[in-house]
Amino acid sequence: MSEPTTLAQVLASLPEEERIILTLHYLRSMSSGEIATMLKVPQRAVDAVISAGKARLSAVLGL
């Protein structure tokens, strides 16, 4: 039987940009607009990462 996967393990396995965006959004409670401004990327790109990340985290963590 495998060990449960933790949020930290899932985040660590993500590419750096995705990890940064998800951390800022979920752990720092920043809006996608704030993140986009901070990282100087389009808000649509941030929204896409958050949406895909939410689905990935839910699937991996069994939420």
Describe the protein.
- It contains four helices and no strands.
- It is mainly α and 63 residues long.
- The longest helix has 19 residues, at 43-61.
User: Major sheet: size, sense and barrel closure?
Assistant: none
Quote the distance from N terminus to C terminus: 19 Å
Q: What is the top-level CATH class?
A: Mainly Alpha
Count of DSSP strands: 0
CATH topology: Arc Repressor Mutant, subunit A
In the predicted model, the low-confidence regions spanning at least 5 consecutive residues are: none
Helical/strand content category:
mainly alpha
Summed over residues and divided by their number, the pLDDT gives a mean of 88
CATH architecture: Orthogonal Bundle
Q: Per the principal axes of the C-alpha atoms, what is the gross shape? A: elongated
Number of domains: 1
Beta-strand residue percentage: under 5%
String of helices and strands: HHHH
C-alpha Rg, in Å?
12 Å
Query: What share of residues is helical?
Result: over 70%
Q: What is the count of helical runs? A: 4
Nutshell version of this structure?
With 63 residues, this protein is mostly helical. It has helices spanning 7-13, 16-27, 32-39, 43-61.
Descriptors for this entry?
mainly alpha; Arc Repressor Mutant, subunit A
SSE inventory with pairings:
Blueprint: H1 7-13, H2 16-27, H3 32-39, H4 43-61
